[in-house]
Design goal:
Largest sheet: 3 strands, antiparallel
Order of helices and strands: HHEHHEEH
CATH class of one domain: Mainly Alpha
Distance between the termini: 65 Å
Strand order of the largest sheet: 1-3-2
Oligomer: single chain
Structural class: mainly alpha
Helix content: 40-55%
Strand content: 5-15%
CATH superfamily of one domain: Winged helix-like DNA-binding domain superfamily/Winged helix DNA-binding domain
């Protein structure tokens, strides 16, 4: 049975797909709250561009914004990332099992067979 798409998970991954948005989240992870101008300061893009990135992050539920007078403060909300981590952990188990099986296969005490390969036509000959 095919599971229906999860719009929250889709928005989370879409928001995390952009390196600028990931960098914004990393900055917010270092401080309790930052104003939009403080958050935008190290980025070589315009303030309107940062605002658009913050809109995407807010729509995904990853950033909470509060306005106090003329200052808009942003705060990280990592809860939507928990669902993304749970989704990814299923695949981590899958790949861990595959790698463990490969390691077990490679650690068997069977000698490796030597395979003789013919010389490549592009390889230089010894008589040059």
């Amino acid at each position: 049975m095919v599971k229906q798409p999860d719009p929250i998970l889709d928005r989370t991954f879409a928001a995390l797909a952009d390196p600028t948005r990931r960098a914004l989240l990393a900055r917010l992870g270092e401080a309790e709250t930052l104003s939009v101008s403080e958050l935008a300061r190290p980025f070589p893009v315009s303030l309107p561009a940062i605002m658009k990135h913050l809109d995407v992050l807010s729509d995904a539920g990853l950033v909470e914004r509060r306005k106090s007078g003329r200052v808009v403060s942003c705060r990280l909300n990592a809860a939507p990332m928990e669902e993304a981590m749970a989704w990814l952990s299923r695949y981590q188990r899958f790949w861990t099992e595959r790698i463990d099986r490969l390691a077990a296969f490679l650690e068997k005490d069977e000698p490796l067979q030597e395979v003789e390969c013919p010389p490549s036509p592009a390889s230089p000959s010894g008589g040059a």
